[in-house]
């Protein structure tokens, strides 16, 4: 509990501008609540304050999923329905534990629903980790994301599995409770150690430095980055337009550049300021697409053709990336550009 509350306090003190950090603080507080209400000596039946702690603990599965999305997807933005989902899980747990339903069948149904929801959210968190892992360029985030997230997910899955096997009863001392406490302590200890040591690592998996969009413009090169490699990479992207190549991955680009994959990740992240490989590619793709859309000689070229020519595999990802970069759809961007060109031609 002390380790979890320490993590939450440091997150709220130091990283209030980070969505991932705020969700990390909420996750740590929820974990502390879980440790309280699952203790064998926790008083039953629940008092009103005990019900609040139990609801906070149960809804932590939602917070865990949201934290995974915020920590590993720089473009993630919380939505109002996320809060509604958290409240729904908390209320369902309160109804189940308070006994106000006065229906054993309904309480069993709620318990099963909560167990399925917790399991499903844990699996979604794991999926988020695995899907975004290959394109992640932040070394610290890559190094510990699987250890922390998979470990926490395994603990969630274990609790859900046990809830299906065990009949409702007053918890007592058992090897299961000891194992659960040990896993929670190990995860909290690992998280706290990494957080406290993050100052020497230029960031933390739990508390990213800030909400840096994955499509953020390049920054000044780090002093440890070789200028010759940066120039070669820039040539590949601007002259040879390698971003057009179908199925281009960071591994293929590292082979083309002639450096190990980890060196290329460091080059793009620390040398150019990108946190995501796809955002790095889209910077060049969207730049070429914008030039094509404002070109009067290409006014009849379909948007889909332009998207495919610049390296996108379908129109959907192209539209999303383009709107994220310009706040306009490609069609709107072309129409406004052509209208501006026509207005300038009339003036002249």
Kindly summarize this structure in a few lines.
This protein is mostly helical and 348 residues long. It is 69% helix and 0% strand. Helix 1 packs antiparallel against helix 2 and helix 4 packs antiparallel against helix 7.
Write structural notes for this entry.
The chain has 348 residues and is mainly α. It has 2 domains: 2-200, no CATH class; 227-347, Homeodomain-like (Arc Repressor Mutant, subunit A, Orthogonal Bundle). Helix content is 69%, strand content 0%. The chain is built from 15 helices and no strands. The chain has helices at 2-14, 19-37, 48-58, 60-72, 80-98, 104-132, 139-165, 175-197, 227-238, 250-257, 261-272, 277-293, 303-309, 315-326, 330-347. Helix 4 runs antiparallel to helix 7 (139-165) and helix 6 (104-132) runs antiparallel to helix 7 (139-165). The radius of gyration is 25 Å and the shape is elongated. Mean pLDDT is 80; it is low at 167-172 and 199-215.
Distance between the termini: 72 Å
Q: Beta-strand percentage?
A: under 5%
Tell me the count of domains: 2
Beta strands, count:
0
Overall geometry comes to elongated
State the low-pLDDT regions, or none: 167-172, 199-215
Percentage of helical residues?
55-70%
Could you state the order of secondary-structure elements as H and E? HHHHHHHHHHHHHHH
Mean pLDDT: 80
Number of helices: 15
Main sheet specs: none
Radius of gyration: 25 Å
Give the assembly state of these chains: single chain
> Could you say which structural class the secondary elements and strand pairing correspond to?
mainly alpha
């Amino acid at each position: 509990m002390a380790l979890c509350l320490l993590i939450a306090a440091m997150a709220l003190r130091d990283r209030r501008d980070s969505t991932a950090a705020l969700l990390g603080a909420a996750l740590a507080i929820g974990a502390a609540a879980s440790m309280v209400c699952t203790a064998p000596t926790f008083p039953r039946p629940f008092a009103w304050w005990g019900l609040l702690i139990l609801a906070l603990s149960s809804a932590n599965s939602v917070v865990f999923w949201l934290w995974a999305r915020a920590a590993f997807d720089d473009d993630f933005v919380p939505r109002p329905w996320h809060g509604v989902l958290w409240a729904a899980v908390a209320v369902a747990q309160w109804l189940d534990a308070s006994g106000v339903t006065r229906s054993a069948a309904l309480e069993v149904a709620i318990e099963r629903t909560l167990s399925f929801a917790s399991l499903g959210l844990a699996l979604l968190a794991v999926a988020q980790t695995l899907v975004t892992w290959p394109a992640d360029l932040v070394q610290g985030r890559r190094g510990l994301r699987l250890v922390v997230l998979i470990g926490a997910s395994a603990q969630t899955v274990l609790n859900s599995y046990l809830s299906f096997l065990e009949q409702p009863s007053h918890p007592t001392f058992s090897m299961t409770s000891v194992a659960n406490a040990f896993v929670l302590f190990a995860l909290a200890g690992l998280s706290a150690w990494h957080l406290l040591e993050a100052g020497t690592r230029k960031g933390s998996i739990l508390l990213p430095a800030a909400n840096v969009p994955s499509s953020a413009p390049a920054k000044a090169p780090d002093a440890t980055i070789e200028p010759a490699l940066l120039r070669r990479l820039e040539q590949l992207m601007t002259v040879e337009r390698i971003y057009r190549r179908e199925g281009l991955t960071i591994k293929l680009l590292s082979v083309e550049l002639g450096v190990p994959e980890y060196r290329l990740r460091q080059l793009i992240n620390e040398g150019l300021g990108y946190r995501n490989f796809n955002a790095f590619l889209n910077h060049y793709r969207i730049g070429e697409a914008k030039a094509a859309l404002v070109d009067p000689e290409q006014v009849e070229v379909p948007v889909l053709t332009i998207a495919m020519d610049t390296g996108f595999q379908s129109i959907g990802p192209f539209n999303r990336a383009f709107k994220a970069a310009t706040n306009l759809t490609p069609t709107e961007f072309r129409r406004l550009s052509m209208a501006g060109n026509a207005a300038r031609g009339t003036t002249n």
